[in-house]
Amino acid sequence: MNHLENLYCVVDIETTGNRMSGNRMTEICIVRMRGDTILDKYSSLIDPEVLIPDYITTLTGIDNAMVASAPVFADVAEEILNFTKDCIFVAHNVNFDYNVLRNEFKRLHHDFKRKKLCTVRLSRELIPRMRSYSLGKLCDAIGIPLINRHRAEGDTDATVILFKKLLALDDDGVTFDKFVKGTFKEGTFPPHLERSQFDELPETAGVYIFKDKGHKIIYIGKAINIRKRVLSHFYSKTSKSYLMCQEIFHIDHIVTGNELVALLQESDLIKKHYPQFNVVQKKPKPAYQILHYKNQLGIIQFAVGLVKSYDYSVVTHYNRAHAVEQLEQLCADYNLCPRYCSFKTKEDCTSHYKLKNCKGVCKKEELVSLYNLRAQQAIESLHNQNPNYIIKQPGRTHEESCFILVKDGEYQGYGYVDRYATINSLSDCEDFIDRKAANFHTNQIIRAYLKKYGEQNVIHEEIAAEL
């Protein structure tokens, strides 16, 4: 069908501003059109049946008193359904308005479905190289009057004028046709993001950073292919992705050359900036280690305690049970006393449910010096369990290699060197690394890598290899 013969309904909706699933409608305006000809208009305030936040009232001018006598959505649902029947649903940032309306119908147990067209996407295709595609700035740039901004009727009237311009620019209807059929392979771009920033993104491994209007970091992600991963955010229909995309004004990226460093860099940056839309890695996780000291009797005492700093610990665990399990094994292997390993016993060490190998230091049946000798051997074994190694990875270019340094079992950081550079010891690596703090997430990242790839690309302390 000719795009000038299609039925369209141009829609704008104002809401209470909560998350998409809980976003309730406060006002709706619909203009029904055939091609570029206006057929009818529908406009109404809606009682959202919840309180309207003050910041929404400041933005839209719609307050609780204004909607008190307005119909609830159930009262106008059938009218809206009939008004949009057989129409292609058109809006600026169409997924927002469409999903709000669809969720309102879902509450009434009705599945609202219409074909969609987004005037942001159409504008990017038919009016390229604009600095911004937000409705206000786009209208200013191309001379469309926008009266009563952030009210449904005012925004709809401006969108109708924009839509007519877009219809006129697409003479053969090819652009409209591919958008309606969903054959356009680019995502719905954030309205405030310049297309040139996306075009500059590389198709390689690294970290991407979304920033708001004031250049504040709001999200950090890692990718094997930065460009492809960023685009996937624009395709996503989740509430979080939509809300985040509305805040994106700028995109930065850091090329890492490999996925492992991208993961480690992402973790480090999230800990540093605590972005609004990152959730998983923001909460710090406690770390535990096996502590040792001489008690008042001069006996070496062991215990499991919290690590106060990630800079260094003998053995770090991110699960207390794992630390206790290792101390139990240490106690068994070196015939240590459960009491002096901080394991609770009712009367004497022989009452421990599992550990029965104490040689009697707790009963003065063994010399403290002999016991401490075995305890020192246990401590040395802990140090021996902390391997020193590097993980070799591809660099950012063909002319360099990348390495991740692990020393005494703890992640130290990563670095890049000329691919032909000769590294004779791990200490040589330290001159090149960008030092980073170890934490629960970096520990998990490296453990996951080793579990997946084993000793592949792992070079241990005694090395004489070209990276």
Distance between the termini: 62 Å
Classify the oligomer.
single chain
Q: Look at the structure and give the mean pLDDT.
A: 87
Derived from helix and strand composition plus strand pairing, the structural class reads alpha+beta
- Major sheet description: 5 strands, mixed
Proportion in helices: 25-40%
Q: How many separate helices?
A: 16
How much strand content do the residues show?
15-25%
Name the strands of the widest sheet in spatial order: 3-2-1-4-5
Rg from alpha-carbon coordinates: 32 Å
Outline the low-pLDDT stretches.
Answer: 309-313, 463-467
Instruction: Tell me the number of strands.
Output: 17
Dominant shape: elongated
Model description:
- The chain is built from 16 helices and 17 strands.
- It is α+β, with helices and mostly antiparallel strands and 467 residues long.
- A hairpin with a 5-residue loop joins strand 9 and strand 10.
- Helix 5 runs parallel beside helix 7.
Please write out the topology.
Layout: E1 7-15, E2 25-34, E3 37-45, H1 54-60, H2 64-67, H3 73-83, E4 88-91, H4 94-107, E5 116-118, H5 119-126, H6 135-142, H7 152-169, H8 174-180, H9 195-199, E6 206-211, E7 217-223, H10 226-235, H11 239-245, E8 250-255, H12 259-273, E9 288-294, E10 300-306, H13 320-333, H14 368-384, E11 389-394, E12 400-407, E13 410-418, E14 422-423, H15 426-430, E15 433-435, H16 440-453, E16 458-460, E17 465-466
Helix pairs in contact: 5-7, 12-16
Outline:
The chain is built from 16 helices and 17 strands. Mean pLDDT is 87; it is low at 309-313 and 463-467.
